[in-house]
Amino acid sequence: ADDGVLRPAVALGPDAAARALAIEALRRRAPATTNALLAEIIDDRASLNRLIGAVDADAALLALRAGAAGVHTQGVALPHLVRRGDVEGLRVILEGAYPEPVRLGALEALAQIATPTAQDALAAVAKAEATPKALRKAAWRGLRRSKRAQDASREVQA
After folding, report:
1. Which pLDDT score, from 0 to 100, does residue 82 have?
2. What angle do CA 93, 72, 98 make, to 5 degrees?
3. For 29, phi and psi rounded to 5 degrees?
4. If exposure means fewest CB atoms within 10 Å of the residue's CB, which of 109, 130, 144, 151 is most exposed?
């Protein structure tokens, strides 16, 4: 079979070991293929972790944001968005018509980012009268956690 067809098919297959080998081969030998594959493997943490550094930064951000907007893929995508400090992408999820569990995940991610911009986004949700009460409460809790994390970070740096 042609390598250009075989590896992407294997990278999406049911065998985890074969997926890992295929992803690694694609990353090394066919980097142009990796951007297109990223959105399809967003639910596979091991494959995503292998591939994320080898793809175009804009393509990675788009795929991660799409993953963060889904209940089943959020657990894989959010840690990457937190590491990138993607407050804007998480804010879009909070302001969108997404299910409550997705929005709660975005709130938790913002609390982990622990920057003034992320805290402003949390405060905006917490103060918005139109936001459901459960989300507002979660935003307040996240804001408090974020401030504690920021304070702890300052103490370590001092």
Report:
1. 97
2. 25
3. -110, -20
4. 130
Sign of CA dihedral 150, 115, 94, 130: positive
Residue-level pLDDT at 5? 56
User: What amino acid is encoded at 20 in this protein?
Assistant: A
- What is the predicted pLDDT for the residue at 31? 72
115 — alpha (psi -120 to 50), left (phi > 0) or beta? beta
Query: What do you get for the CA distance between the two ends of the chain, in Å?
Result: 59
Tokens of 101: 């569990």
Write the CB contacts of 51 (distance below 8 Å, at least 6 apart in sequence): 23, 26, 27, 34, 37, 38, 41
pLDDT on residue 41: 86
Q: What is the chain's alpha carbon radius of gyration, rounded to the nearest angstrom?
A: 18
Which residues does the chain have with pLDDT short of 70? 1-8
